Amino acid sequence: MIIRSAKVIVTCPGRNFVTLKLETDEGISGIGDATLNGREMSVVAYLEEYILPALIGKDPQRIEDIWQYLYRGAYWRRGPVTMTAIAAVDVALWDIKAKVAGMPLYQLLGGKSREKVMVYSHATGLDIDSCLNEVRKKVELGYKAVRVQCGIPGLAATYGVAKVPGQPYEPADSRLPAEHVWSTEKYLNHVPSLFAAVRKEFGDDLLLLHDVHHRLTPIQAARLGKEIEPYHLFWLEDCVPAENQASFELIRRHTTTPLAVGEVFNSLHDCHELIQKQLIDYIRAPLSHAGGITNVRRIADFAAIFHVKTGFHGATDLSPVCMGAALHFDSWIPNFGIQEHMPHSEETDRVFPHAYKFSGGFFTPGEVPGHGVDINEELAAKYPYNPAQLPVNRLEDGTLWNW
Ligand code: CS2
Ligand code: MG
Fold first, then answer.
1. Ligand 1 first shell, C-beta below 6 A
2. Ligand 1 atom 12 nearest Cα
3. Most distant CA pair in the chain: distance in Å?
4. Is residue 279 helix, strand or coil?
5. Which domains does the chain have, with CATH numbers?
6. What is the pLDDT of residue 17?
7. What's the half-sphere exposure (Cβ side, CA atoms, 13 Å) at 37?
8. To test ligand 1's pocket by mutation, which of 33, 313, 322, 344 has the most ligand atoms within 8 angstroms of CB?
9. Summary mean pLDDT of the chain
10. pTM of the predicted model, to two decimals?
11. What is the pLDDT of residues 79-119, one digit of tens each?
12. What's the pLDDT tens digit per position in 40-88?
């Protein structure tokens, strides 16, 4: 069996997605998610110029060798563009291998470690009352875990809050980056009251999560972690940018609030210290940005040694192809924590028909051979690429800050 053809499909059913499709000479094809929000065309170029020509004629069943060829052979290793491109190839190859074997991907990985995959959804609101309404809707839908993000009094906009309550939150909303204004002081003074209100309304059993989105310093994160301890969050996410992994030691000294990090990571080297020193509790590096199944499997196995669990990123800018493959991985991995689920739009789901199913706060990956997600190319062609970038953030004095 050889890879006979390879192509990149760019489509925008409400937001941009990049999909890699590999076809073999025996008529079996596989697809992988190559979407990098706000930088989509850089991955398209990387794939079309440098990777796809080299894949033609290769044996698609030699997944590891192809992974090494693309990683070591790149010379310029790591980084979000390179590792997203490699991830798309890797997931497409695992899709092909599982189809050749005639089994759902989770079987090929090692079989189920759980009957169903717990997910968390997003509840956002411009103020606390509207947040409570959205949490209530998610609880009524059966979610056992909800991420809560609230507008901040005195700030026109903040991360994670949908413009229209209940509508999907899509941050990449303009050709050039929108500019938001941020105040750490206003944020820190507000968040504890949000979780006090949620706990008062919904009690102690609902699993609560919150995403700080890289905006604090370690001591500010330590303060927040300590102040929300009475509300025992499932996790506090991306409280500090994690290039300096050792900076999490300060946070860890001050709070027992569990920490999650890693949606912007693409290599074990981005989180090796965080994991080994047990500075975090959940690693979020998703299949689509961290080199695919072949690489994330290594990260997850390393994390298991240090009691760190997976909590994959699953925002709407990760396509249903990534979600489908992730649910198979989540079904197998012994140190599974939780899976993020932001529902895609109906038009997106029509472009990417899939076997995974939601029920009562959990997903099952489906039993069809492969990862169970396909792309309707004819429908995809009806949604042309629409350039859009993520916002930038400035402090109230104009200092450029982390978005
Ligand atoms: C967020 C993402 O889901 C999350 O945890 O951090 O929505 C993130 O902002 C986007 O994926 C960026 O494209
Ligand atoms: Mg996040």
1. 37, 171, 211, 213, 263, 313, 315, 317, 340, 390
2. 37
3. 61
4. coil
5. 3-104 (3.30.390.10), 108-368 (3.20.20.120)
6. 98
7. 19
8. 313
9. 97
10. 0.98
11. 999 999 999 999 999 999 999 999 999 999 999 999 999 99
12. 999 999 999 999 999 999 999 999 999 999 999 999 999 999 999 999 9
3-class DSSP state for residue 371? coil
Residue nearest to atom 4 of ligand 1 (CA): 315
Bridge-based pairing of strands 235-237 and 207-211 is parallel
Please state, for a pLDDT cut of 70, what percent of the chain lies above it.
100
Q: From atom 10 of ligand 1, which residue's Cα is the shortest distance away?
A: 315
User: How far apart, in whole angstroms, are the C-alpha atoms of residue 196 and residue 207?
Assistant: 14
Ligand 1 centroid to Cα of residue 318, in Å, is 9
Cα torsion for 67, 72, 78, 82, to the nearest 10°?
-60
- Does 334 score more than 90 pLDDT? yes
Q: What's the rounded Cα separation, in Å, for the pair 264 and 79? A: 10
Give 51 Cα–ligand 1 centroid separation in angstroms. 27
340 CA: nearest ligand 1 atom: 3
Q: How confident is the model at residue 157 (pLDDT cuts 50, 70, 90)?
A: confident
**Helix H or strand E encompassing 185:** helix 184-202
**Residue nearest atom 7 in ligand 1 by C-alpha distance:** 315
Q: d(Cα 233, Cα 212) in Å, to the nearest integer?
A: 13
Token code pair at residue 132: 């409570």
pLDDT tens digits, one per residue of 283-325: 999 999 999 999 999 999 999 999 999 999 999 999 999 999 9
Q: State in Å: Cα 205 to ligand 1 middle.
A: 25
Between the CA of 315 and the centroid of ligand 1 the distance, in Å, is: 6
Separation of CA 116 from chain center? 19
Cα–Cα distance measured from residue 235 to residue 213, given in angstroms and rounded to the nearest whole number: 13
Strands 392-395 and 179-182: parallel
Is residue 219 within 8 Å of 250, Cβ to Cβ?
A: yes
In sequence order, the β-bridge partners of residue 236 are: 210, 259
- What token pair was written down for 399? 């200092």
Q: Show Cβ contacts of residue 200 under 8 Å, excluding neighbours closer than 6 positions.
A: none
| Four-point Cα dihedral 331, 333, 335, 338, nearest 10 | -40
